[in-house]
Amino acid sequence: MEEKRIKVALARDLLQKNKTFASDLRSRFARQGLTVINLLGSPGAGKTALLEASLPLLCRHYRVGVIEGDLYTSRDAERLARSGAAVIQINTEGACHLDAQLVGGVLEELPELDLLIIENVGNLVCPVGFDLGEDARAVVLSISEGDDKPEKYPQTFRTADVVILSKLDLLPYVSYDLPAVTATLAQLNPVASLIQLSATKESGLTPWLLWVKSVVAKKRGGAEGCHRVCK
Amino acid sequence: MHELSLVSALVEEVSRDAQERGVSRITSVSLAVGKRAHALPHALLFCFDLIKRDTILAAAQLIIEVIPPLFHCESCGLSETHDALWLDCTCCGLPAVPTGGTELEIRGYEGDCPRGGKEN
Ligand SMILES: Nc1nc2c(ncn2[C@@H]2O[C@H](COP(=O)(O)OP(=O)(O)OP(=O)(O)O)[C@@H](O)[C@H]2O)c(=O)[nH]1
Ligand SMILES: [Mg+2]
Ligand SMILES: [Zn+2]
Prior knowledge:
The structure holds 2 protein chains of 2 kinds.
Chain A: E1 4-13, H1 16-32, E2 35-41, H2 47-58, E3 64-70, H3 75-79, E4 86-91, H4 100-106, E5 115-119, E6 136-142, H5 149-152, H6 154-158, E7 162-166, H7 178-188, E8 193-196, H8 205-220
Parallel strand pairs in A: 2-5, 2-6, 3-4, 3-5, 6-7, 7-8
Chain B: H1 2-21, E1 25-34, H2 41-51, E2 61-67, E3 70-72, E4 79-81, E5 97-98, E6 104-113
Parallel strand pairs in B: 1-2
Antiparallel strand pairs in B: 1-6, 3-4, 3-5
Helix pairs in contact in B: 1-2
């Protein structure tokens, strides 16, 4: 039989599958009137600590659920068990980010909610390209990571709707150029607000709680999602 | 590792398309990878060699084209490609917005077709 050599042009986006799943999730969340926040940050930045400090307060106003993305353990989910929120664990088994399909797979296990916070896998790089159908992205950046992180991982900070500078209580103990970080963040992402707080000392939480409240209010008001500098 | 899931998606997508066209063997696949797409070409190549085994891409070569970021200045309208992750406009000095360089696109592939399959 004669073989023929063929050439096929495709122009197909490799991330299309996630984009399709994410847009399905977004419509589903819209139908349910559910506000979804994607919480990002490097390993140990203080994402879970922020939730531990703020969930008891948020649970007074909303029915809150949390999806905990973690490579292998359920430690973070256990830490949040007493918070009053419905917590679900996703183990990514080595994958460095959550994707929309993984999130979609656990939604059935959650009760009816007003607010869903997704703690992504601790990573400042990979989660950026994976839309989870969220209304807003919050990036946690801790003082102890060093002041060069926004410059080193610009894309994560560019796609943030809010940046939380955490572990502020450590400022007296480390050399940290706070004005330089503020300036870099303002340049990378002029529209994201910057909130400085300490989760373990439970200080400075109010602006964060107000920000969450504003995202919920915007969703309920049917307004568009938060502005992003780039996709 | 992120490249592994990207390459799995690539092999899945290309295999499906090839089967629909009656392609029996793929000889090359070309992929455009943006400089800001968070995927390393050498890691993609490594993963491709692992994943292509026992598929119709087993003998295929992965050809990667790296796309530099494109920046657009909203103040003066200048667009420029630059090998940086972020950039102040070289014309007016204001921060420019990156508008490209995040592509992860299967451009196409070549293969052999016993029954003379459909090109496009
Ligand atoms: N001093 C101080 N330590 C904090 C603060 N927030 C978190 N930590 C500590 O930082 C460490 C990491 O905090 P986590 O909340 O587990 O960080 P995470 O971002 O959830 O980490 P992963 O989920 O593993 O990526 C813990 O030992 C916390 O006690 C803070 O505001 N101040
Ligand atoms: Mg955590
Ligand atoms: Zn300009």
